User: What shape does this take?
Amino acid sequence: MSDSAQRKIGDVILKADNVSLSFGGVKALTNISFDVREHEIRAIIGPNGAGKSSMLNVINGVYHPQEGTITYRGEQRKDMDTHAAAKSGIARTFQNIALFTGMSVLDNIMTGRNLKIKSTFVEQALWIGRARREEMENRRVVEEIIDFLQLQHVRKTPVARLPYGIKKRVELARALAAEPSMLLLDEPMAGMNVEEKQDMCRFVLDTNDQFGTTIVLIEHDMGVVMDISDRVAVLDYGKKIGDGTPDEVRSNPEVIKAYLGAH
Amino acid sequence: MIYREAGQYKTTYDTDTQIFPIAQDRYAMLAILLIAFIVIPFVATPYIFSAILIPFLIFSLAALGLNILTGYAGQISLGTAAFMAVGAFASYNFMLRVPGMPILLAFILGGICAAMVGIAFGLPSLRIRGFYLAASTLATQFFVVWCLTKVPWFTNNSASGVITAQQIEILGFKFDSPQEKYLLVLGIVCVLALLAKNMVRSTVGRSWMAVRDMDVAAEVIGFRVMKTKLTAFAVSSFYCGIAGALFAYCYVGTVEPEAYNLDLSFRILFMVIIGGLGSILGSFFGAAFIVLLPIVLSMIVHVTGLPNSVTSNVELMVFGGLIIFFLIVEPHGLARLWQIGKEKLRLWPFPH
Assistant: This one.
């Protein structure tokens, strides 16, 4: 896949200013400012407990920071609300797979389309008119995502029966079903073998390339992070200790000390 | 006949999302409906109607209602009988106090009253879950029965607290005989089961299951958890309310608030657990198990000619034993056993 026109990095669409988050006496994030540009792949790295996942949770409104503001697409607010975040095009996956285990792959991905469905409860109960039509239209979109992520063979399998690597892919599919403009990926490659990692990298890059989706990614595999991301932010103990292109980060002495180690 | 789907191609998403995607299932369902609507009314005796079929259908409907809440939306409730009571007594009062009230409308309004009570008592589910929620729904059970007993207005100042269900009449046709009542109940249950199936295969059903399986993720992808839970409580209570009204009007005829006690709530919860959580068909299996099995057992035990004091105890022991047996064999209920059986049948007689 060659570089398409969409792959041009645009303006800053998400900006966190001086965000601080604490749980009781534990400071998860201290005075963090960082931004994400349109269409870029932005990585957040750092040791365990550095506050990476907390940062994602602040971005899509699961956690509410005590201090600081978040500006998303020109709108500044103290914190995001999960529903508003989903509506404004932010989708995410979770570090510990958060799929709906009792449902089939197809139904899981269909849940990702829920905000596109306008039919009322009564229409759905009667399975008439708009409800039925929307179900078919959304099914078509979902099938495209199934094709894109190569999940055809498990379409109707209950999620609980799937192997780990496929589950991670289904979670990505569910997030993509919302046609997000920004995708937050929390360790999409954790616990995978090399082959699965390669597949996942390809899917992430293709998503970014084909749909122009902005991607914020947490990952521990430095090879992957340095290869695919445009800019990398480094957190340690809830503070940002480095930010910049992969090369800049790699040569930042503080980052080497805290996280990368000497090579 | 071989249970195969070879050659049944689905070329549109519409045919792929059918309720019964396999042709043999469709024919079987059609046959069951034809038998239920046309053959049974001619062959069954009044005893079979009023002691077996009508209670089976009514309990199926109540179990279906609870299954929506507990099986699909994951909210445990011990207040099922209370919602049934609200449906029954609300329908009774609508019939009593509104002149010319059509009975079906009274049932629906009774269901809506139950739904509103369900929403009110579903509010704790926004903060608590699991066993704690079950304990808080116990409040519904005690409060509703207490309220119906203590406020004489609900029972039309009846001294004993017993109400007698009014005559059922739809468009001038009187439903008097067990056979006619059976057909009425069957019709209502079929329509409501179809509606429930439609709900669970569209967005509202997926929202329930999403909240059941992983509520944080459900919220993050855009479902409103509060609305979803309360919708589940409302729909579930509506179904239970209708079941309660049918219980009063088509099954027992005269009923007191105490008939809708905690014991009944537990019976319906057992039906859902034995039949299969999160399965429409399972609600019917569960009701059949709890309603029909004791009858079958008592027939079998009576044939042995043992004295009555022994037979009634043997009956209960066997019944209890069977419940434990089925739960050990398949904790996911009879519906799952049925599904496994069907999957095996698709390959039979080949091993793979």
